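Dear colleague,

Thank you for sharing your sequence with our group. We've completed the structure prediction you requested, and as agreed, I am returning the results in plain text so they can be pasted directly into your records. Please verify that the sequence below matches your submission; if there's any discrepancy, let me know and we will rerun it promptly.
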Amino acid sequence: FESADVVATGSTWEDNAPLLTSYQNLWADNADAVSVAYSGTGALKTDFTRTGKRTRLGAFNDFLNSASRYYQNNWTDGPRQDSYDLFLGGFRPHTASIKSPFPDRRPVYIQLIPMIICAALTVLGATIFFPKDRFTSSKNLLYFAGASIVLALSTKFMFKNGIQFVNWPKLVDVGFLVVHQTHDKEQQFKGLKYAQSPKFSKPDPLKRD
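Please find the predicted structure tokens below.
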């Protein structure tokens, strides 16, 4: 910076307020660009990078970014990882099977759970905001109770079997998953189910060698 006459000889660039502001914003913008590529949102704590202090607005933006990352990482991240694998050569179509990997081959009941939850939420909203008579009418309460039970059971099932609902990449094996084929009593194929590979199981903290 001194040789380029950006700062005076003997001074530090941190003492140059305009330069420091430009550098901090450039650093934060770079962090946002890199973060969007791998996480789908801007970087966290960029308010501190830009201003040197944390702000309430920055903390709120971090909350929104974290919530967005959770949603994207679980339900929309598979195609993005597939695009990386295809672009970087991790997956080569001419060496893979001619059978398409993209159709959803999970059991039908697994595929139906999200739609059941959406339907239950719709019924709950209708009974609360658009009751046919009044909210406390027996018919309305019956629909409300039924939708609540369906929603609770479906949500419990989804959280208990969360690994089945993640949008996993389909082109390249992620390594920590094992895919099992399920069959009915007549040995007819029902669908694919995911399980965590024993190679990547969490170690038992009480176990001693």
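Summary note from our side: Helices lie at 17-39, 46-51, 56-75, 77-87, 108-129, 138-160.

Kind regards,
the structure core
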